[in-house]
Structures are given as C-alpha cells and as structure tokens.
Write a structure and sequence with these properties.
This protein has 3 helices and 6 strands. It has a 3-stranded antiparallel sheet with strand order 1-2-3, with no helix packed on it. Helices cover about 30% and strands about 25% of the residues. The chain starts with 9 loop residues before the first strand and ends with a strand.
Length: about 140
C-alpha cells in the first residue's frame, strides 16, 4: 500500500444510521443521523448516503479543478452533483449506486468529456468504488 497522506477518523454512536450520531475526532463534523422517510424512517436528519454524496462530489470537483488547471482549461463555474442511491441486493442486503453529473459551462463537449474522464480516473472516491458500485458519470457542457 502507498504512503498514507491523510486519515480521517469518525465515530458513530447510538443506533447508527437509525437515530445515532456521527462525529469526527476534531469535532468539526457532528451530525445526528436518521433513516430517510423513503427507507421507512422519520427523516429530518442527515443520512450516510448524503454524507457520501457530499464527500464524493467535493472530492471529484477538487480533482476536476486540478486536472483542468494542469491542462490550462478554465472551469470557474463548474459544479458536481452526486446522487447516491440505496437498492436491495439479490442476497437480501443493500447496495449502493451512484450518478455524477459534472456541469462545465463554457466548454465544448469533447473537452468536458475529457476532463471528466480524467477526474473520474483520479478521484479517490471513484477509485474506491470502482468495480463495487455501479456509477454513471456525465459531463454537461454548456
């Protein structure tokens, strides 16, 4: 394994995703967790899929900006929308699916596609889920 550059540490307590609490060791992230209404819960609090979507979209966006900067392509108004879905598995458990939509106003479609492919190849979240989670990635040039 490669040299570790950073490690995030978080602890989940209580009932986990169904009424628990998640907190990072530095206290900067401290959230109450709840099952969403769509999964039979009360909603009204954060859930792990939302946390994954925020982490993935922000990480992907950072890698996109890095790749674009190296190629001297301006992506000032870019944004990344990550959707993380829960679905049942044939074994009776649950799995995840994801869709990433990358908005790159002002770019032609070929440049947008190229940047998004490079970001997807370099994003740690994309690499961690590759082969484990079905993911669609779409570049939206405008």
């Amino acid at each position: 394994m490669a040299e570790t550059l950073y490690t995030a540490t978080a602890t989940s307590t209580g009932s986990g995703r169904a009424g628990g609490r998640g907190r990072t060791d530095d206290g900067l992230l401290d959230v109450t967790l709840a099952l969403p209404v769509e999964l039979g819960g009360p909603g009204g609090a954060t859930n792990p899929e939302q946390l994954l979507a925020v982490g993935w979209s922000s990480c992907f966006h950072s890698v996109l900006k890095l790749v674009a900067g190296r190629r001297r392509v301006r992506v000032d108004e870019s944004s990344v929308v990550a959707e993380v879905s829960v679905h049942p598995t044939p074994e009776g458990g649950f799995g995840l699916g994801a869709a990433l939509r990358v908005h790159l106003p002002g770019l032609d479609q070929a440049t947008a596609d190229d940047l998004v492919a490079a970001a997807h190849a370099g994003c740690p979240y994309s690499n961690a889920t590759r082969g484990n989670v079905p993911v669609t990635v779409e570049a939206v040039a405008a």
